[in-house]
């Protein structure tokens, strides 16, 4: 520690000696002390601060900020502190308050009264009333991986290189004066605090403090913003440092304001603006400056960088909408007391108004407050220079230098394996050159020019971006040529009316052309163009430049309409909420391997960054990446976005298109791909069509593009569309227009009806609407958005119900006057209403009854198919290709079987087909069976399945409770990549909570209610490739409701979820405990069996015979009771497998009963059926028959035969 102190003293002594030597020629001799000198002015001594001390403070402050930025980059702050991100984002927006705002606002208020107010009023109006514009900018920026304002405009208008280069040049031209303003402000503050006066005379460069400030800020910007190549990666450290700077400058400004308020009083602060309004009104150029500040809030490169590029979540704008305006309001209010007190303090001191914030505490001897004010002003300048330099370096690199270098073949950059170093070097050199250019402008400009005039000049330049940005977000007809023409016209007029007169005032150009016009042409005077006089120069230049910009933008866009490619690129900008990827197969004309894409990206971004990005893509997509495989469209789009973050969207598109041009796809590959997809599509479509065609409601489904993709027969019958009019891909607008022309949509303009309904569907809001048709019938329409985009609408005829309702209403209206006469009519109306309600309830359950009634016919063919595929898989000598084919067929049938079983189970639950058998269930036994069932799956996936032992007992249905817990554990294992799945139970008063914890991806808050609906799955894909049906949780919810249990979900995104079931606690009673049945063992039989199979479906009998024969089991086949009795008499079977539903109203129980009466020692039997009714289960259990559900799973059938075989052997031993 002593050595550190000695080192600090040694370096401070060196800096002090250097500063004294380099500044000894600036004037009078000063008595140098450690931190201040005594200076005589106006008869009183004013303590000053040595320049070397200020420089040391600046270096220490910059080092502190760098440490803070380093901490923010190295240690992730937001995963555990989500509340911090919107606060940091909101405070970082205050980078808008540069040294102009810190110093120049007070100067503008002293010189022009309320002239300081527009720079605060503009952004305040945007965030309070125009927040929709900012929200749309942020949403588009995130979706398109925008890296800068040039990238945004170029991407909107067809990813034009020329447009991006023009925007970059304009941004540089606008930024150079603004950067110079920051250097001037810091140099001015050092001069005031160290010398007590403002040094107006020019000094050599190496004695100019502004030169060293420029180098220091440039170095800091390089350290902050050019450590990584991907400009779309969020600079967490930089944002944290900028937010801290915003706090520092606010504290400094408010501290000076409070001190000024204590000196001048509130009355003096309030009297100043009131006097200005009464005497002069609003200052000249007030509205023009407000408009420029409004546009600058999203057009300045630093504001676009912080507000759009660095915004991680559009929801952060909800906080920024109030925090940022409150910040501006607080600063603008404290300007008034500083002006009131600063005006008195500066009398006789000949100090410029811009330094009042510094001079006020200095003149009163408050040295600590003066240092704090200096740190605040330096902080304001530092934040602006850093963010603007980072943003401009990205634009120059992506849109000017790198495209030019890639075109120059002499550099041979296309042969370099890694270009990331080149990109970083270009950005660092750009920042350094920008600092030198801004310093040169500072040296060349007039020293008496106030800060506000420099800032407003830059504001007017960047305001030229506003028409292209706003028009690009809201006008479909805007074209690339129109945007280019508007920018050129507006920028040219800005140069002529504002920049050139400013340079003339600095002595760069003669002054006579301003007053007389070029070549003596009076109507071309830059401050009175076309004889428009009476306005201040800023308002005049702003009016003409924006008029030229907007006029050229609109006129040229109307003259040269946007191309098809421009319209495609414009779609996500116009409707970001409905954005889908633009690229199609035709945009990538050929085939490319994954390793080629990775090599291209590595050359630009760097190998480590690309490896990390591809790993993130693999985790998000849930797909493995094979470097030698052909890249799909999604990976191509991902690579383009990755490149766009480093070299811009236009350069990325050009590089990938050039790399992919010339290759093609084999016809055989395309045919194989289409054939495999079409098989799956045909099966799913057949199943869907069978369901849709047998319900009473009409159904229509449209996709996100508002085109028809599915419908049923009832829908066509309801609306009577002509033959051929309804087909897949038909625009739903055509169908609405057809109905409107027939009067189905009511009176009014037809196109208005169409637009109204299309807009409502695009918004994705659920609705319920009743329409009275021209024939008097009434249709109830219920619409609901689809999760992946699109809309589904159901149509129900409720005419009878509405007529009954109308009759009842009419009867009630006249009830008091005609009580006696209408008693019978009222009774009839009530009866009709009751009947109509019963009809409505019956219609509502039509789908459920249909599925339940059709269960046998649906499952019969699937049962036969699975038996045949199982027999095929056990065929001796089967080659590998055929075995794989059989496996795939069996998997497809199993998927269809699971879907149908889930639908049937849901329908039975809805129809009340389950009668729960409530008993006392031992949770320890249940948990043990669950662990045995899933332990193999968990171990195979490297997961820890932990089951907490318990002795608790509950009251529930043992089988339904097992189904619910099974589903919870199965889902947890399906979506957990690594970690633990925990199953346990805990007491909760008189209840028990069964909980399943996992460490998976969690469920987003907006999905938690919908996840229990039918066909709803979470957005996160299973890391193990499993795809659920979306029915498991819906069935669990129905089971829990049937049992009177409570289902609950708690989840933490990216950390895990807890599914729980709350059910009543039961006291332990060994006699009443219902033991949970374990899954049957599937071991071999150990005997030569002869089986009698009874089924009325010949196909199923043939499949059963083929499978049993493969297992070495002989069998007899029968289709009815008579054939079964004859076969059993001829040869006694070891066991009987009987279908329940047989022909001629016979049943499998009848067949088993007849055989039992004719055989002395009846063999064991089992029922194989698709009927899952509770009555059948109870009856089979009473008669001692096993029960197996269709479709038959080979493993379950094998286990059943083994069980019956053991029972048969037991009987033989007993008989013997």
UniProtKB/TrEMBL annotation:
Record localization: Membrane
CC per GO annotation: plasma membrane
Domain Response regulatory positions: 1090-1205
EC number: 2.7.13.3
Keyword list, A-Z: Coiled coil, Kinase, Membrane, Phosphoprotein, Transferase, Transmembrane, Transmembrane helix
Entry membrane topology: Multi-pass membrane protein
Reactions listed under catalytic activity: ATP + protein L-histidine = ADP + protein N-phospho-L-histidine
PROSITE patterns: HIS_KIN, NA_SOLUT_SYMP_3, PAS, RESPONSE_REGULATORY
Location of the Histidine kinase domain: 853-1067
Pfam families: HATPase_c, HisKA, PAS_7, Response_reg
Residue ranges that the Swiss-Prot or TrEMBL entry lists as coiled coil: 805-832
Domain PAS intervals: 684-721
Transmembrane segments: 49-71, 83-103, 115-134, 163-181, 209-226, 238-261, 281-301, 322-347, 367-396, 417-442, 454-474, 481-499
Alphabetical list of InterPro entries matching this protein: CheY-like_superfamily, HATPase_C_sf, HATPase_dom, His_kinase_dom, HisK_dim/P_dom, HisK_dim/P_sf, Na/Glc_symporter_sf, Na/solute_symporter
GO MF terms, alphabetically ordered: histidine phosphotransfer kinase activity; phosphorelay sensor kinase activity; transmembrane transporter activity
4-aspartylphosphate: residues carrying this PTM: 1139
Gene3D superfamilies: 1.10.287.130, 3.40.50.2300, Histidine kinase-like ATPase, C-terminal domain, PAS domain, Sodium/glucose cotransporter
Family named by the database record: Belongs to the sodium:solute symporter (SSF) (TC 2.A.21) family.
Name under which the protein is recorded: histidine kinase
The species this protein was found in: Pseudolysobacter antarcticus
């Amino acid at each position: 520690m002593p050595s550190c102190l000695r080192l600090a003293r040694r370096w401070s002594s060196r800096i002090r000696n250097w500063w004294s030597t380099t500044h000894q020629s600036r004037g009078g001799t000063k008595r140098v002390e450690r931190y201040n000198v005594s200076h005589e002015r106006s008869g009183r001594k004013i303590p000053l601060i040595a320049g070397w001390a200020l420089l040391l403070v600046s270096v220490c402050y910059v080092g502190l900020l760098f440490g803070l930025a380093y901490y923010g980059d190295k240690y992730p702050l937001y995963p555990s502190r989500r509340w911090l991100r919107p606060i940091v984002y909101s405070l970082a927006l205050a980078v808008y308050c540069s040294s102009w705002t810190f110093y120049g606002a007070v100067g503008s208020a002293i010189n022009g009264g309320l002239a300081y107010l527009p720079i605060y009023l503009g952004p305040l109006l945007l965030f309070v009333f125009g927040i929709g514009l900012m929200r749309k900018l942020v949403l588009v920026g995130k979706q398109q991986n925008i890296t800068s304002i040039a990238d945004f405009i170029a991407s909107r208008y067809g990813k034009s290189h020329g447009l991006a280069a023009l925007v970059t040049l304009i941004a540089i031209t606008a930024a150079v004066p603004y950067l110079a303003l920051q250097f001037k402000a810091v140099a001015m503050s050092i001069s005031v605090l160290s010398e007590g006066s403002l040094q107006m005379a020019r000094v050599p460069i190496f004695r100019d403090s502004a030169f060293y400030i420029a180098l220091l800020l440039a170095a800091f910007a390089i350290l902050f913003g050019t450590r990584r190549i991907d400009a779309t990666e969020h600079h967490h450290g930089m944002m944290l440092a900028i937010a801290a700077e915003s706090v520092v400058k606010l504290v400094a400004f408010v501290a000076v304001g409070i001190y000024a308020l204590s000196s001048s009083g509130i009355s003096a602060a309030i009297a100043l603006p009131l006097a200005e309004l009464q005497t002069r009104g609003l200052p000249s150029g007030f509205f023009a400056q407000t408009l420029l500040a409004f546009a600058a809030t999203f057009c300045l490169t630093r504001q676009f960088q912080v507000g759009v590029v660095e915004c991680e979540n559009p929801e952060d704008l909800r906080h920024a909408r109030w925090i940022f305006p409150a910040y501006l309001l607080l600063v603008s209010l404290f300007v008034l007391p500083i002006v009131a007190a600063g005006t008195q303090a500066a009398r006789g001191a000949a100090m410029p108004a811009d330094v009042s914030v510094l001079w006020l505490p200095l003149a009163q001897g408050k040295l600590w407050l003066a240092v704090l004010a200096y740190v605040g002003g330096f902080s304001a300048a530092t934040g602006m220079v850093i963010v603007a330099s980072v943003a401009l370096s990205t634009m120059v690199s992506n849109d000017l230098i790198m495209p030019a270098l890639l075109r120059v073949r002499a550099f041979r950059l296309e042969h370099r394996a890694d270009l990331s170093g080149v990109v970083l070097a270009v950005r660092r050199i750009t920042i350094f050159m920008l600092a030198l250019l801004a310093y040169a402008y500072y040296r060349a400009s007039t020293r008496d020019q106030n800060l506000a005039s420099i800032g407003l000049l830059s504001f007017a330049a960047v305001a030229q971006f506003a028409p292209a940005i706003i028009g690009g977000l809201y006008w479909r007809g805007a074209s690339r040529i129109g945007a280019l023409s508007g920018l050129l016209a507006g920028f040219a007029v800005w140069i002529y009316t504002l920049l050139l007169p400013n340079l003339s005032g600095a002595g760069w150009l003669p002054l006579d052309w301003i007053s007389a016009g070029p070549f003596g042409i009076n109507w071309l005077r830059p401050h009175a163009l076309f004889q428009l006089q009476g306005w201040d120069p800023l308002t005049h230049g702003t009016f003409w430049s924006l008029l030229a910009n907007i006029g050229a933008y609109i006129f040229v866009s109307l003259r040269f309409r946007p191309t098809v490619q421009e319209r495609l690129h414009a779609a996500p900008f116009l409707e970001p909420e409905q954005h889908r990827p633009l690229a199609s197969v035709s945009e990538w004309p050929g085939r490319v391997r994954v390793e080629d894409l990775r090599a291209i990206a590595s050359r630009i971004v760097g190998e480590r960054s690309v490896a990390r990005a591809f790993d993130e893509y693999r985790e998000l997509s849930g797909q493995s990446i094979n470097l030698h495989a052909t890249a799909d469209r999604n990976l191509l789009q991902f690579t383009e976005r990755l490149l766009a973050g480093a070299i811009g969207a236009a350069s990325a598109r050009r590089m990938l298109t050039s790399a992919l041009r010339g290759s093609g796809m084999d016809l055989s590959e395309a045919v194989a791909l289409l054939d495999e997809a079409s098989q799956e599509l045909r099966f799913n479509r057949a199943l869907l069509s069978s369901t849709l065609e047998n319900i009473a409601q009409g159904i229509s489904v449209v996709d996100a593009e508002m085109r028809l993709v599915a419908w049923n027969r009832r829908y066509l019958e309801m609306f009577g569309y002509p033959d051929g009019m309804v087909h897949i891909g038909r625009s739903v607008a055509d169908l609405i227009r057809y109905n409107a022309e027939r009067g189905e949509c009511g009176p009014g303009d037809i196109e208005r009806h169409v637009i109204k309904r299309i807009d409502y569907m695009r918004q994705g809001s659920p609705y319920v609407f009743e329409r009275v048709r021209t024939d008097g019938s009434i249709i109830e329409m219920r619409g609901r958005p689809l999760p992946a985009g699109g809309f589904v609408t159901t149509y129900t005829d409720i005419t009878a119900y509405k007529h009954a309702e109308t009759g009842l209403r009419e009867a009630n209206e006249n009830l008091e006057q005609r009580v006696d006469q209408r008693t019978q009519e009222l009774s009839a109306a009530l009866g009709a209403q009751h009947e109509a309600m019963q009809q409505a309830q019956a219609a509502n359950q039509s789908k459920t009854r249909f599925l339940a009634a059709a269960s046998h016919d649906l499952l019969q063919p699937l049962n036969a198919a699975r038996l045949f595929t199982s027999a095929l898989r056990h065929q001796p000598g089967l080659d590998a290709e055929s075995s794989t084919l059989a496996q795939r067929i069996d998997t497809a049938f199993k998927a269809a079987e699971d879907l149908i079983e889930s639908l049937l189970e849901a329908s039975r639950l809805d129809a009340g087909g389950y009668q729960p058998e409530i008993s006392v269930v031992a949770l320890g036994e249940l948990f043990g069976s669950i662990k045995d069932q899933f332990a193999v799956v968990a171990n195979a996936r490297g997961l820890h399945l932990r089951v907490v032992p318990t002795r608790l007992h509950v009251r529930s249905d043992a089988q339904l409770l097992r189904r619910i817990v099974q589903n919870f554990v199965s889902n947890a294992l399906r979506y957990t990549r690594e970690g633990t799945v925990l199953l346990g139970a805990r007491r909760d008063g008189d209840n028990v909570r069964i909980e399943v914890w996992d460490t998976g991806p969690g469920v987003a808050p907006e999905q938690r209610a919908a996840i229990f609906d039918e066909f709803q799955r979470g957005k996160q894909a299973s890391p193990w490739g499993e795809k659920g049906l979306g029915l498991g949780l819906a069935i669990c919810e129905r089971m829990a409701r049937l049992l009177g249990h409570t289902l609950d979900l708690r989840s933490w995104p990216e950390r895990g979820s807890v599914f729980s079931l709350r059910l009543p606690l039961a006291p332990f009673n060994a006699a009443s405990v219902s033991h949970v049945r374990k899954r049957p063992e599937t071991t071999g039989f150990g005997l030569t069996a002869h089986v009698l199979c009874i089924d009325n479906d010949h196909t199923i009998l043939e499949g059963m015979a083929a499978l049993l024969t493969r297992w070495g089991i002989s069998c007899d086949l029968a289709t009815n009771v008579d054939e079964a009795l004859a076969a059993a008499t001829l040869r006694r079977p070891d066991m009987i497998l009987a279908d329940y539903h047989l022909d001629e109203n016979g049943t499998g129980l009848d067949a088993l009963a007849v055989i039992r009466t004719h055989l002395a020692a009846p063999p064991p039997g089992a029922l194989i059926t698709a009927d899952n009714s509770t009555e059948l289960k109870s009856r089979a259990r009473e008669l001692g028959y096993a029960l197996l559900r269709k479709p038959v799973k080979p493993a379950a059938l094998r286990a059943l035969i083994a069980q019956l075989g053991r029972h048969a052997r037991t009987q033989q031993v007993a008989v013997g």
